[in-house]
Amino acid sequence: MKKIKTACVIDDDPIFIYGTKRMMNEVDFCEHILVYTNGLDALEGFKELKEQGAELPGVIFLDLNMPIMDGWDFLDDLGQLLQEDMAHITVYIISSSVDPRELNRVKDYKMVRNYVLKPLTPKDLDHVRTEVA
Amino acid sequence: MQTLTVNFLIKDSPMAVSILDTGMRFISHSRIWLKEFGITDTDIIGKTYYEVLPATPNELREIHQHCLKGGASVSKGQKFVHPNGSVQWLRWKINSWKNDDGAIGGLITIVEDITEDKRKEELLSKALNVARIGGWEFDLISNQLSWTAITKEIHEVSPDYVPSLEEGINFYRAGEHRDAISELVGEALRSGKPWDTELQIVTGKGKELWVRAKGEAEMVDNRCVRLFGTLQDIDEKKKTALEYQKVSERLAIATQAADIGIWDYDVTQNKLIWDDFMYKIYGIRKADFSGEVEAWEASVHPDDKERCQKEVERALAGEKEFKSEFRVIWPNQEVRFIKAESTVRRDAHGNPLRMIGVNWDITAEKNAEKKLKNLVEITSAQNESLLNFAHIVSHNLRSHSSNLSMLSGFLSKESRATEKASLVKLLGDASESLNETVSHLNEVVQVKTSAQEKLKCVMLYDSIKQVEKNLSVLIKEKGVKRTIKVHKDITINAIPAYLDSVLLNLFTNSIKYSAPERAPIIKIEAREKRDQVVVTFTDNGLGIDLEKYGKKLFGMYKTFHRHKDARGIGLFITKNQVEAMNGKIEVASTVNQGTTFTLYFEKAQILTAP
Fold first, then answer.
1. ipTM of the predicted structure?
2. pTM for this structure?
3. At A82, which CATH number?
């Protein structure tokens, strides 16, 4: 199984970030982990990476409910920023919401592979790895 | 000499006389004769009758021959149809004259063309027949009643029927009809007063028939010598009129019961007519207006007038029937809803002649509809808000519970003491967050379940000043300038604690999100608008991109600025609190210029003691 080079976690909850990082390390999920605490920070970070010519993360774990810029707005802006480069990025939405209106919205975004309900488990990470690799 | 005298006399005779010899040649004629037959040739002496009048009918020629043999012919009027179809009526007297020796010398004719008179007579008779007008006459001297043929026809009696006056009167229907005619005839006999009335007779065949009876008396020395008049069959017309009257009475009762007003617009005369109910529906008195158009223009709601006028024009143009609703304002300023329907009558070319329509008041239905709509809106809004709230609760609790289960999972497998300690600290943080969330939710639930009866009459200005005072330290520290243009007497329906919380949140938001490069300014204004109080709360701070965040602004846990104190709970609670006070909150903002919150409260009706 091919190891993922860079995974990105976008979530405002420090405990979730702590737990996810710990799980990723335990299952040896990827080489690098990028963390942003809201959509806008992530977008600006990606812009910077692009300008430097650095590689963008192949997998993004995205929370929906975040301050300043939420997950949906981030997806909209990311699509505009990356355009055709989007093909190399797989997004997993990780949320606590079971609101059917949010679940339905996933269909509008081709880059979103799946919607994972919190808590995230090591099993979920295994699954993601098989899907992406 | 004698002949000359005779000729001279004949020439000036006032009749159409001609004297002919046995060869039907003119010996003499009167000037009138030429005139009568329209002959321009003045010298016809010696010419034959048939040369001068080639159109003389054969029948008359035969009569001439008969008279030349010693006969005589008198006709009071005879109709001749010429080969070309034209009709001629002639009246004549033809005699032969004899010579001194007793032999027939020729003819003396007196002929008149009475075609014109006959035609008129015929026309009159036809007219009487068509109009079913018969005549009658009662001679008081001979005590004889005579009826014309049509009168007999109307009575459905045989043409040879001869009535007496009593019989004539008895043809009228027993009861009021016969009583009425007896009275009228009696009055005419006594005083000569004419009559003209509409009554029912019962014909010889037992048929009931409406007639128009007219009569006049001829008086000699204050005594009536003759009664004469006409009798017209008006049965069909009268029955139609009576039926129409019945229908319109029925309609009047129906429209009265349903409070329907009827209007009639004569397009060609540009004249509008209203029935009395129209005035009732418009709440006005007929006497107060010079005409219906003025009354309508004065009553209809100014916002609906132009539209209605256009709709009427479109109906007249045949584009769309006039079926509309509009408002009228009664003199007491009450606004009523009117429903209108109409049809357009047109001539053969499709040009509009008349527009007839109805109006009725649908205010009660409108109000009920509005109430129902409001109720549905409130209910669906509440449903929506409950559903949203359920999702918020589920989301928020799930984030914390998943953190807790994840951390406890780590902890159970962790053996390193330092890691264990940090996990325990994280567990503590997680449960603290859960606690905070639960208390937020509690706050929201309390707002949502707060009872309406808690609403009190609150002095708005005092509340603002109180909150301002509570924040005085912060205001002083940040150097916030305030302008408060709120009249001290304005009172609103509010829950005091909520109002304080709303104002506090708006104040702190404005200070928290003030622009770092300029001194914060807060402007509060209030104005009364009908039964509402509108409060605007304006700052010159960072502003919010409403195009991006407008929908989420009042959502839970939404923050839009990178600010350390942003919690995303304030405006959510504020909105709920305002709504719990039957109010409304709106926002307008420009990024880096400022934000204005507009709050709508109910104006307090009764001042309660503090």
1. 0.84
2. 0.49
3. 3.40.50.2300
